[in-house]
Predict the structure of Sushi, nidogen and EGF-like domain-containing protein 1.
Amino acid sequence: MRSILVAEYFAFVVGPALGLSLNDLYPFGDQAGDTAMNKNDDGSSPDIPISTLFPFFNHQHTKLIVNTNGVISFLRPVGTYTPNPFPIANDARMIAPFWADIDTTRGGTVWYRETTNDTMLDRATDEVRAYFPDFFRFRASWVFIATWDRVAFFGCSGGGCSKNNTFQAVLITNGQHSFTIYNYEDIQWTTGTASRGNSTTGLGGTPAQVGFNAGDGIVSFTVNASRSPDIVNVDEDSNVDIPGKFAFRIDASDISDGGCNTKGRLTITPRYGPMLGGQYLVISGPCIEPGATIELTFLGLPDKKNCERKTEFSMACITPMFLYTGDAIVQVVIEDQQGDRKTFLGRYTIINPADSKHRAYRHSASDWFSGRQQISWDPDVAELKDDEKVDIHLFYLKEEGNRGLKWQKEILKQGVQRLLGTTELFLPTSGYALAVRVTSSPQRNDQFERGIWSDIFPLALRSDQAYSLCKNWLNTEVQLPPLPSDDVQPCPCTLDQALLDIVRFQPDPDCNIFNRNSQFSRTGNCLHRRDAAHCIRLTDLGQQMDNLCCYDSSNNLIDSRLKEGGSLQRYHYLGGSRIYPYLTNFYFDVLPFLHCCRYTRNGYNVVSGGNIVVAENICPRFFTHREYSSCENYEPPRPARTNGDPHITTLDGYSYTFNGVGEFVYLKTTDGTFQSQIRFEQFRKENGDLVDASVCTAISTQHTNTSGVVEVRLNSIRTADILVDGEIIDFDESNAHQFPGAFVLQIASNDSNINSTKKEFIVSFTEIGIAFKAIASSKVLNILPIVGNKSLAGSLRGLLGDFDENPNNDLQTDSGRILYPNSSTEHIFDDFGVSWRITENSSLFTYEPGKSYDDYQLRSFRPAFSVPTNLPPEVVDLCGTDQECAFDYAVTDSADLAAETLQITVIFNTSVEASYEIKNCANLPSVVGGVWNASSTLEGSNATFSCYPGYEMDGEKDTSTEPAHQATTLTTNVSTGSVTHQTSTLNIKETLRQFDEQFNKILPYVIGGIVVIIVLSVVVGILFLRRSVQLKKMKNIPSGTYTHTDGFTFYSHETNK
């Protein structure tokens, strides 16, 4: 039986029955530029095109209709004069401020207008923010005003025709969220005579109805007293404590009213915020009397601070600085003037500093040395806008005992005009891990400090300072247990593999290709790994260490001995037991890398006592404690796909089409600990017609006892949403969210071929090793599943097969029967696909108000099973020889769907190529005083050995001890196969020596000697060419073919590694 949801609001009377005056209504009439409807009975305006998309009941609308009988409708006119009880079907989607039998031929006028006038937008914005505190950042972009001015009722006679009603409906939106305000100036009648009302009083019979109707016969919202005599007092009632005024949010699948209540949980906005604190929260829910005191506590923290009462409906609170991430329980205690105390609880999520949005921006952020620097901020953010001036604070980390860290603070600048939005500052050398906070001034002693943060960044150092800090770090590191590199998941070998492996890795928040289009990357991308285009980190905390893998612009894994790339990390940036999220990793892993390898990469000169001492290149010593990135022994995960009119490729590579309608087991483990379910709905054309095809519209997944239920589903307003345990996840404060057992990421697309309105998500279940990439457009949700856990082989079931590397047994039904792989599409539909339909009790899906499991199960549906033989030219032009694209175009008549099917198939094929294991060699050896240079360790690439400045190859016993003037190099070809791997070991001799204090006295002789040496070097070089056999006597270099080039030492080594 179809369920019916009818929401009723029980309005309350506050104060004397005064109602609103005409001045309280939005301006209307000729002077306001309104359109007046012709005098009529039961009439309607023509379709009114509107200049924006208006969201109502989870649908977008481009037009509306104003109806004389007190209704604004969207799908068709409403001429019905007696209000039917909500809910109503037959596409009667309506906003009903006062649905009754109005006859303007007996008196009154109906006015309407669309406006984007700044004054009207400001007024609408203020009202929404006041009545809906959790939308304190809302800004109206469009308003529609409909006014029924002194309208009479049908059938009035005598004194009845002098009775009239004046009311107004105001529609407000920013394109994503929408609201309606009902204003009632005076209500004197409720019923026309055709609805059995009295002709002289306008009362009795079937009175007016106030509310909203979705038009599906399921969902509606009705204001209490509708269709009862008491509706005549609607001008004295309210849901926002203003007699005659009602406010509602109407964009979602259910209607929510404004105001406050005396029970329930707190509503906290924003719901997520930075670990560093200082965030301005608007908390609503309780009704707050004037003069009440409000005490805020985050459970588990000792400090208690006050909040500020903003209105009867809301309070403003500031968050403290945290040292952990994840959910925090918020407790608010409200004490009124009589001493009565009430306690309310809510939930707030703390975001990792690497993931949170920064609202203060460093200029020229790559290297901030001590000295003059520039910073900017948004002057209108809530944290600052209450004050005219701001202070600039510098925070820096100080190490305490047992590797603890503590923030220290100093003031850089005071009394800066907030509206400037930028200022110059002088950066001191107080610490090495820094953050700048733009702080509201003056601070309130009874509240936590409010402000907005920059990113956490390193202080750039001179080479001698960096060298000293690196040495100190090395001395400390030798006293710690070495990192167990053998137990760490190897890096993917190429960027394509890194983008595929969303199971074991996740994008590094500080450096990834998605940041190019992200609102979170204004300060910069890859600041700590300059040579990288994209980096990834382990998703699983494991032993609380991390493996950072970075890729260059050529899509190759970076060898960090050559360029700034990745390495093992002692601490995971997500934190862990007694490990501060991001801070510990930044201080003990990122900073040492920069000190040892960026600021001292080429060594430096120190003048001491008249002597010049050339320091060593200390970077290689860093990698004795943080092994550089390697893809040796890397095994890629395996992809699958579901796209278009569902075309499915299993994890073992078997492809088929299953276009059922309903909810099905997508993938599950045989022990039942993991299950993913997928929803297919019948495809609807732009004109609303249904076709014999289906598409994926939602997927819901849970790793039992490890994660919550994570659901991705299409949304006609926001394209798609992610829900965790039924709650929609907000990505305004961060693109990434960590949950127990699951990681979700919203990424910006860098693919220009796909519609810009699409959304792309990654959902990874970190403990079991299964992930999904969801690519959503307005009509279809495309899914790319990834499995990277080999222990699951053969233990999976569902539409994606069993993951045993045998595609021929993937058509296994729920009962265990296996269909032949050459089965027809119809046979697969009847005997395999529908066998995986879920039951109502097993469903993981969250159903919208008025919807249930049964609404999505169309068991009688029979799809089209084959492509028509004579395809139109436009299908061939778009699809070429791709049969899936042609099928989707022919069956749905949608070129957009067909094009998307083609595009997702290309993406999937790229993933399949990346899933093939790549032959690669062991890492080239580290050598004191030199380094191997290789674009990669993949089969067939070349490696060149180079000496560091101050070193040269020691080939013969009588090698010169002078410093090499140019890098000495040796080249080898890297290949694999049946060739046994050899390691070329070079004996490198340090050639540094101190100059004599009397150097200046013998300078002319030195210059003369250098000239002689250069001449002799040329002669010796020629002799070397003629006597190449002597080169084979060089110590520790494998025999092979070598050549010499005049002008500098160059050895070409052709022996296979």
